[in-house]
Amino acid sequence: MKRVAIIANWQKENIEAIIKEITTFLKEKGISFCFDEESASRLGVSGCLPPPAWKGNVDIALVLGGDGTMLKVARDLAGTDIPIMGINLGDMGFLTAVEAKDLKKGLAKIIDGDYDIFQRMMLSASVFRKGVKQAQYEVLNDVVISKGPFSRIIALKTYINNEFLERYPGDGVIIATPTGSTGYSLSAGGPIVNPSLNVIIITPICPHLLHHRSVIVHERDEIKMQVCTHHPEVVLTIDGQLAFNLQHEDEVIVKTSKNKTMMVNFKETSFYKLLHHKLKKSDYDVEEKA
Questions:
Q1: Are 22 and 49 contained in the same domain?
Q2: 186 to each of 7, 91, 159, 177, 204, how far by Cα in Å?
Q3: Residue 152 CB: number of other CB atoms within 10 A?
Q4: Distance CA 158, CA 220 (A)
Q5: Does residue 147 carry a pLDDT above 70?
Q6: Mean pLDDT of the chain, nearest integer
Q7: At 11, is the pLDDT very low, low, confident or very high (cuts 50, 70, 90)?
Q8: What are the residue numbers of the active site?
Q9: Largest CA distance in the chain
Q10: What pLDDT is attached to residue 282?
Q11: Into how many domains does the chain fold?
Q12: Ramachandran quadrant class, 10 (left: phi over 0; alpha: psi -120 to 50; beta: rest)
């Protein structure tokens, strides 16, 4: 371990104190470090390269924040193969490796090489309008096509490898990775999928149909969604963070990306333990027993 990158969400409380704790630890171990551009600016540090230029110069990236911060960093580092370790300063923390209270323990394991790196599949989403590409995105969690603020049904024709699957009338459709299966897709009734599997999940949002089922397709399948709605309030959302306004007959093509997100995990942590810990109804259980 020669160099560590530190990426911080400055909206989190006590973020500067946590950064100082990390940098002090790394200095004691003789390990150099760098920062993302915002952190470098806030801390008055010069000479830091933007994340895409870290490939070959950084061994691991420490991400201080929650799942939203992890999703952004995963997109920013797509194609660099730099492992990312999340330190949870948010609420759910499904994608993070350690809680803030266990920070030093997690850092020590990183220095000792006592960790695993898991590859998480990503998606590539492209928007076409009259055959011309308008936008392209790398995605870790999900691609969502949904209606705007008004309570009006939108319709989406869905094709798998150019074979017609379904015309979904409703609030929209979620296309998720296994990593994203515990997010919006889960809330919409989709299945929970172990992130070690490479599949794509299609989940309709409040469909105006007598049947309501998710469809799981192979990682090599290509999904095409065509907007069949004339009113303007149709939006493509990437990982809940990036948005693109869609028009009637726009096509969104989603397939497995060539890039992977390299995520640090510790040996004592399993997906199923995490699932139980993060999704258990602790408050409800307490009320039941009271």
A1: yes
A2: 28, 17, 22, 12, 11
A3: 12
A4: 16
A5: yes
A6: 91
A7: very high
A8: 67
A9: 63
A10: 44
A11: 2
A12: alpha
Q: What CATH number corresponds to the domain at position 278? A: 3.40.50.10330
pTM of the model: 0.91
**C-alpha–C-alpha distance, residues 48 and 241, integer Å:** 25
What CATH number has the domain bearing residue 131?
A: 2.60.200.30
Q: Which domain holds residue 71?
A: 3-115+266-289
Give Rg (Cα) of the chain. Answer: 20
pLDDT at 288: 41
Residues 101 and 136 in one domain: no
pLDDT at 277 over 90: no
On whether both 87 and 16 belong to a single domain, the answer is yes
Residues 254 and 130 in one domain: yes
Residues 195 and 214 in one domain: yes
Which residue, 200, 202, 227, 203, is CA-closest to 124? 200
Mean pLDDT is highest, among 43-52, 106-115, 234-243, for 234-243
Residue 151 clears pLDDT 50, i.e. is over it: yes
Burial 56-94 (b: 16+ CB within 10 A, else e): eebbbbbbbbbbbbbbbbbbbbbebebbbbbbbbbeebb
| Secondary element (H or E) of residue 163 | strand 163-170
CA distance 39 to 2: 20
When pLDDT is averaged across residues 10-14 and rounded to a whole number, the result is 92
